[in-house]
Amino acid sequence: MKPAVIVIDMLEEFVHGRLKSPQAESIIPAIKKIVDTAREKRIPVVYVADNHTPYDPELKVWGQHAMAGSSEAEIISELEPRETDIVLYKRSYSGFRDTGLDIILRNMSVDKVVLTGIHTHICVLHTAWDAFYLGYSIYVVKDAVAAFSEKDHEYALEYMEKVYGAKVITLDEALKLLEGRFE
Ligand code: ZN
């Protein structure tokens, strides 16, 4: 069983911008610990980042956000990717849709995804949905994901657990998992 860490939408737009999660800043240290541990253990770290073009369907719901080429679409400097990380750009909620993520993970024999980032009830949830149907074991780190509100966050965690069979784990459990001490 090989894990990969997926960092979802930790962008200027969602951490400091118009569509920010009020909790986004508070999860940065947990994500940093997770990606640092993964790099140490040579576990793949994959960033999936919103990068919109003007006619993407979700702009009808949210307005323009994280537009390709804008500063809002940049990954926050605190979590700047390293050379060994993989960065993929997406135009929908799911990190799997039209990004090549599935084949990249399969080429690395990854069968477990450890989900971090924002928002718990939108892009994290839709990434979990695709991961479920593609046959991955899903771990959602509750201390490393955030939403617009505590209600959205809690509801989405429960939904992913009940409907996709995701394991909702703590930061400590995530670190143990990356060190091969948690199943
Ligand atoms: Zn978007």
What does this protein look like?
Strands 3-2-1-4-5-6 form a six-stranded parallel beta sheet, with helices on both faces. It is globular. The chain has helices at 12-15, 24-40, 59-62, 101-107, 120-133, 150-164, 171-178, and strands spanning 3-8, 45-50, 86-90, 112-118, 137-146, 167-169. The N and C termini lie close together (9 Å). It is an alpha/beta fold. The protein has a single domain, classed as Isochorismatase-like (Rossmann fold, 3-Layer(aba) Sandwich), CATH 3.40.50. It is built from seven helices and six strands, in the order βααβαβαβαβαβα. It is 38% helix and 20% strand. Zinc ion (ZN) binds next to loops. Zinc ion (ZN) is lined by residues 50, 52, 58, 65-66.
Number of H- or I-type helical stretches: 7
What is the spatial order of strands in the main beta sheet? 3-2-1-4-5-6
CATH architecture: 3-Layer(aba) Sandwich
- Give the SSE string: EHHEHEHEHEHEH
